[in-house]
User: Fold this.
Amino acid sequence: MKIETINPHVIKILISLRKEDSISSISKRINLSYGWTNKWVNELIKEGILKKKWRGVVLNEENKSYKKIISFVKDNLKDINFYYSALQLFGIDYCLTKTDAVYVWTEGGYNIARYKEYYPIFIKIKKRDYLVFLEYCKRLGLKVNPNEGVFYVVEVVEDINAVKKNNFYVESLEKTIDFMQENIYNFEPALEMIKEVYNKKLLIKYKEVNYL
Assistant:
């Protein structure tokens, strides 16, 4: 493969690809213009990673270059951040929930009971997209519900009502507040943050008194 072909756009395309795909769908998933997506897809066709099909392309999963790049992704990008950024490339209906919703709404200011050896990522996925999600996870070596390391904890639902914040889809602030209030002993400091940042009328007084 030519060195010019190995770039962030192509890596995103290879991560987001489905077995049968269209350039317009790929373009939307990786948030790149149709023209540039078309250019890099044609380069991947030349490399034999993709094959042209009427109004679309087919992925050749046995292509050596494809296998090497996906292997590199699995071995080198499988950290906490990749679990989050990969979600944006799958083209599925999802939303972050529970502890992850708290993390997003507090602008990363509150995280609890998670560390590198045990880092559950709480998400809801629309039922119609669940098998597609599992295919992506299998291909990229992303773990679902193993209860160790970094992994997704998935709640499969019929419908999702989410809002977009900081480039992620997340449960509404109101639902996140309800979750924190139901688990008040874990999230009282976070509720204090929410009260101040979003000017919410919450009966929370967590901050320690600073005696001089």
Remarks:
- Residues 27 and 33 are 6 Å apart (CA to CA).
